[in-house]
Amino acid sequence: MKKLLSTVLGTLLAANTAQAAMEDDPLLLKVMLEQFEIRATDGDDPRVWEAEAWLGKDLNKFWVKTEGERVGGDTEEAEVQLLYSRGIYTYWDLQIGWRHDIRPRPKRDWLVVGIKGLAPYFFDTDAALFLGGPGGVGARLQTEYELLFTQRLILTPEVEVNLHSKSDPATGTGSGLSDLELGLRLRYEIRREFAPYVGVNWWKKFGSTAGFARAEGGPTDDLQWVAGIRAWF
Asked: What is the pTM of this model?
């Protein structure tokens, strides 16, 4: 009887230990709509989206990222990234995968190698290299910082920079510094998962990219008022 009780208790203890270990590193899913907004400008007001989702555990995750812009009912810019992400240091993940540019045409495909995490002083940073395609090597740096006025009212300055090693006239992309975008958005979290916001956004194209835009009769810079929502679950 003692031997039987010992066996049963040992089995239960092992099962509880295994369950606890599983609960310490569960499989999780998060979907984040970073920006879903309208931007007021002189012509047709663009509708812009930026979203991402991940599925995985603490160290290993699969990511999907997408962003784009619609103007006058037409999608002018759209891309999607499929990435594998591995935690390499506290607050930092190494990401590798594939980027597909749906718009502008012709479509382009890239190998992605990047890092994502919190830089010193809690700057949320996403930096990536894009390899392949007629554009040679591309690079993108995105960073933002949250300033809390209250637990619900939050101001977020944002920066995005894009660079390319070669020009790609077919997509209107020039070599060197291609474009810079600065944003300032003030959101109010009705709930942590849902927050409307207003703000201002400024972008500018440089070098050959600006030259391609002028040749097509398009703008090379713009200052826009924005309004949108941010949500996650």
From this structure: 0.86
